Amino acid sequence: MQYIANHAVMENLRHTNQLFPISEFVDQFDRFSQGSFPTHWHPEMEIQIILKGSAEYIVNGETYLVSEGSAIYIGPEAVHMATALSAHTVGYDIVLLPQFLISLMQTAQCEQFAVPLAIHRPAAQVISPESKEGNVILESLKRMYYTESSHYGYELFLMENLLAIWRNLIMIFPKDSEGTYDNGKVLREKRMKDMLGYIQKNYPNAITITDIAASANISKSECFRCFAELSQLSPIEYVNQYRLTQAAQLLRTTAQSVSDICYLTGFNSSSYFTKKFKDYYKMTPKEYRSHHGMRHS
After folding, report:
1. pTM > 0.90
2. Partners of residue 27 on adjacent β-strands
3. How many CB atoms lie within 10 A of CB 286?
4. How far is CA 111 from CA 13, 96, 105, 106, in A?
5. CA-CA distance, 37 to 159, in Å (whole number)?
6. Are 79 and 196 contacting, i.e. CB atoms less than 8 angstroms apart?
7. Nearest to 37 by CA among 83, 101, 92, 72
8. Nearest Cα to 5, choosing from 34, 29, 40?
9. Residue ranges of domains in the chain, CATH in brackets
10. Could you report the per-residue pLDDT of 252-297, keeping only the tens digit for each?
């Protein structure tokens, strides 16, 4: 069936079948520190239904609340994060390269319906059961969640439901034109993606605010503004958070020593690493490995 998502590295998501680039996840928010996964972005569109509990999403600096039984659409390349608002929150997530739908609609000569994917707008849309279209989308997501991937013709089943979801999504999207969007905000989103990419490539090394700002060719003050608006963290807080999520992944999936993991993820002091890890995960690295067990990918 579906598998547990590791959102710490989701921006590097690889699709097992590039000809059918759709991935499914089950997010158990309790597995993330403080029920939250860090700010990230990826080229795919994403739709998540909350099966249990509720969650808050921040997408390109805007806040969206999603209750149990509702869902959220997150557009391609949107900078986003999510935090559970209640214990034991669980979501079912589908992630899809937009070119798949764009190509399908071009072949059917109805590419006008792919415009939101091409312009990456809207960045997000909450889907609730109050509207007829929302109800159709949510029922399709539930069918996808409860149907085993081993069923014959499963790819056709997914495509059938994805088309139904998209047809109803474009009915509830705001009718704003491309020109109504704040160009300054769009520029800040691009700068943020450049800086996140720099951090994710260079986190094992020493990183300064100057380095992060230079990766987007902006001043340090603008760097702070981007992070405050789009991640609600300072740049260095984000670097440390990202390093800790990478460390947690290594603790879960490798037999490397805690000391080795400390240095591999950019920390230069074992005691500082242990302190920051305990602050974030509420347990020491050794306790975390013991609690979660080593799972090889």
Report:
1. no
2. 91
3. 12
4. 26, 17, 5, 5
5. 28
6. yes
7. 83
8. 29
9. 3-179 (2.60.120.280), 183-292 (1.10.10.60)
10. 899 999 999 999 999 999 999 999 999 999 999 999 999 886 544 3
